[in-house]
Design brief:
Layout (H helix, E strand, L loop, with lengths): L1 E2 L4 H4 L1 H23 L8 H20 L11 H26 L4 H35 L2 E7 L4 H8 L8 E8 L14 E4 L2 H8 L5 E5 L8 H10 L2 E5 L6 E7 L2 E7 L2 E2 L1 H36 L5 E7 L5 E7 L6 H5 L37 H7 L7 H7 L3 E3 L6 H5 L14 E3 L13 H13 L3 H17 L5
Parallel strand pairs: 1-9, 2-3, 2-5, 3-4, 5-6, 12-13
Antiparallel strand pairs: 7-8, 10-11
Amino acid sequence: MQTRMDQEWVKHWDFMLVDIICLQLAFVIVSIIRQNVIYPYSNPALIHLYLVVTICQIAAMMFSASYYNIVRRNVIQELWCVFKFAVLTTLFSLLYFFLTKTTSTASRLQIGTAMVIFVFLDTIGRTINKARIFAARKEHKRSMILITSSAVLRKVYENMFTETTVRNFTLTQVFTLDPVDPAQFSDIPVTISHLDEHAIDIINHMYVDEALIAQPDDLPMPKHAIDIFMNMGINVSYTNSFMENFTEIHRIGYLDVLTSSVKFVSPFDLSIKRLFDIIGGLFGCIITCILYIFIAPAIKIKSPGPAIFKQERIGRNGKIFKMYKFRSMYLDAEKRKAELEGMNKASSDLIFKIDDDPRIIGSEKKDKNGKPKGIGNFIRKTSLDEFPQFFNVLKGDMSLVGTRPPTKDEWSKYSLTHRIRMSTRPGITGMWQVSGRSKITDFEKIVALDRYYIEHWSLGLDLSILLKTALVLFRRDGAV
């Protein structure tokens, strides 16, 4: 997973101006309604309030993705984005007043009322501004030609040129790098022809602002065509990963580079995820310390030694870290693992699972059904052994939600398709855990679940997994 460096708030200065004006207008409306003051800027206290909230609003512009894809959003989507933007601005404002201890009940109520009005005013303001942009683009559209392969022509066209959103360019003509039968694409309402010498002569005398070259990854870069367009003075945009990867342009040192990733995430979203990890980690560490008082003696009585088990695990992108757990196995568990390899019920040696593992502390004690019921079995069944990992979360080695961190031995056996699991920070819980981890013994299914999580990650998905984890623990379903 790659961080997406959002700078949409910089280029959408017109929407920024609309947001600031709408917020000020909202405060004016509130002052007229609540205080019967038509011109609130004559009041020093109100000027201070408005200035602070405006600065917090600008901070929210910088740290949110409020302007990302803003032109393509419909009214409902815009309303939701403005609401989130208003909530973030309000949180920043209240945090400032809390830290400076200058807030009052009146100012908090004024901010809350103004933000409600702002949401509706700003949604209208942004919609009007988008209508202005669309009208201007219709008059000043750039002429673009598409150069692609016949194998992916339809895919490129459907993804680039059939959206209802008004764009700032119009597709003038399509040229293919290989011979093509135009009759196969009769439903595409532009001329389609092969890019040969005759076509190049035609392009030389056409109205063309830009050439977009898009082709599959398995074809080489058409350098000859690019050189021709550059010699003509035509801007050239090129991609060979337009469908399979998320790609962005950024700078490394003095180089402008294309970066591809299975998922780009905004710094704002990552910051919120980390904030949740810190808050959850703090609470989890407090609970862990309380649990230690009761669990540690029980472990030490049955198996003398440290109550906390430390093991080197593989973290994000292969970084090694020490993971903490309440020790649920005897001290010689790793040595005895080799003796039990033949009992592994998993489909591969990339995970190790056996029924009634004799290495678990107190497993020799059985219940009336013949099942082990020692202290080790209890803390594993209730997932209490996982609680010390909250210290890993607080340190930043792990997250509340992520993928299961493999051991060094498991990591050494990973194939190319398995490594994607560790492209994100490992978590205490994840898709595998809430999908019945003890019931899934096929490692490829685990990889598929983790890949889905990485490719579809969102704060909402994390929240959903956390809620499902609580239900799983409550039912004691899927525990090892």
